[in-house]
Design brief:
Elements (H helix, E strand, L loop, with lengths): L1 H20 L6 E7 L2 E3 L5 E6 L6 E2 L4 E5 L2 H26 L3 H33 L5 H29 L4 H27 L1 E3 L4 E6 L6 E2 L6 E5 L3 E8 L11 E5 L8 E7 L4 E2 L13 E9 L9 E6 L2
Helix pairs in contact: 2-5, 3-4
């Protein structure tokens, strides 16, 4: 048996030496991957309009969809009405009494002045009669008390007129101001909820898929669109363990594929810390069961569609 093995080994030795002198294959395999975002309303509701279509481009701030906002419109109208009512009450309190109320207070003061004048004259007559002995002390005391009461009545009516002319008390005005502020907060909340019924594009992007349509319910857990933002396509590649040291982060790569423009390049941005076996998505006998490190690279120009198989190698 040894007689037959030695010639075979000698025949294969030159091939092994030749293979050891050959340069390793540095071509890498990968695919294009997109960082998609899903757009969903923040509140559940009925979709009444969709403004974008699959494959179309949108700019940041463009309207994508609208939901039924009947309840939000009614809430906003009610809050606005409460602001108007509270503001009217505050203005009325700040202005003080109306002209007819002020005029009525003046009439009461005039009546009190007239009554005091009669009481004063009656007191003067009673004092003269008392001096002549025609009026008793009790009668004089009663007339004097009536004159004093008339003076007090005049002071009261004068104070009442001054109070009527004044605005409401400070604490009353503060209460009305707080009522206005509360109504304004309700209006702002209603406006915010109404704005949420219109969903706009957060970035410049292409509509990849439309998931919900007019007449369907949508909400936080039921998105309507799937977007592919501009610049959100990157390359996923797999670096064999023997090549890892020569391909650090930042290495520029030449990229080729059926759909790639000529001269397309990418730069490695991340490399996983742990190795894995070649994923089954790379259908190649040469790639099967190799220990590789998953990495990502960002394109420097136009990008191929997500899912496109890629061949990458260090840029020359």
């Amino acid at each position: 048996m040894i007689r037959f093995r030695l010639p075979a080994l000698l025949l294969t030795l030159p091939l092994l030496v030749s293979a050891c002198g050959a340069e390793p294959d540095t071509r890498l395999h990968g695919y294009a991957e997109g960082d998609f975002i899903r757009i969903a309303p923040q509140q559940p509701g009925l979709v009444i309009d969709t403004a974008a279509r699959e494959g179309g481009r949108i700019a940041r701030g463009d309207e994508l969809l609208r939901q039924d906002a009947t309840a939000e419109i009614a809430a906003l109208a009610a809050a606005t009405a409460r602001i108007d009512a509270a503001t009217a009450r505050y203005d009325d309190a700040l202005a003080g009494a109306r002209d007819p109320e002020i005029e009525a207070a003046r009439d009461l003061l005039r009546q009190a002045l007239a009554a005091r004048n009669d009481a004063t004259q009656s007191l003067e007559r009673s004092q003269a009669l008392f001096a002549d002995g025609h009026v008793s002390q009790a009668r004089l005391d009663a007339v004097r008390a009536a004159a004093t009461a008339a003076d007090a009545r005049v002071d009261e009516m004068r104070q009442r007129l001054n109070i009527v002319r004044l605005p409401a008390r400070a604490d009353q005005l503060r209460a009305l101001q707080a009522e206005i502020a509360a109504a304004e907060a309700e209006r702002d909340a209603a406006t915010y909820r109404l704005d949420l019924r219109t969903v706009r594009a957060p970035v410049d992007a292409r509509i990849h898929r439309q998931l919900r349509f007019v007449g369907e319910q949508a909400g936080p857990g039921t998105p309507v669109y799937e977007l592919l933002p501009d610049g959100a396509v990157h390359a996923v590649l797999f670096i064999p363990e023997p090549l890892l040291a020569g391909l650090p982060v930042g290495t520029r790569l030449d990229v080729s594929c059926d759909a790639c423009p000529s001269g397309l390049r990418a730069a490695i941005t991340t490399i996983d810390d742990e190795a894995e076996f070649t994923p089954p998505i790379l259908y190649s006998d040469a790639e099967r069961a190799r220990l590789v490190y998953r990495a990502e690279a960002r394109f420097s120009g136009d990008t191929p569609p997500p899912g496109t198989p890629l061949f990458l190698e260090p840029a020359q």
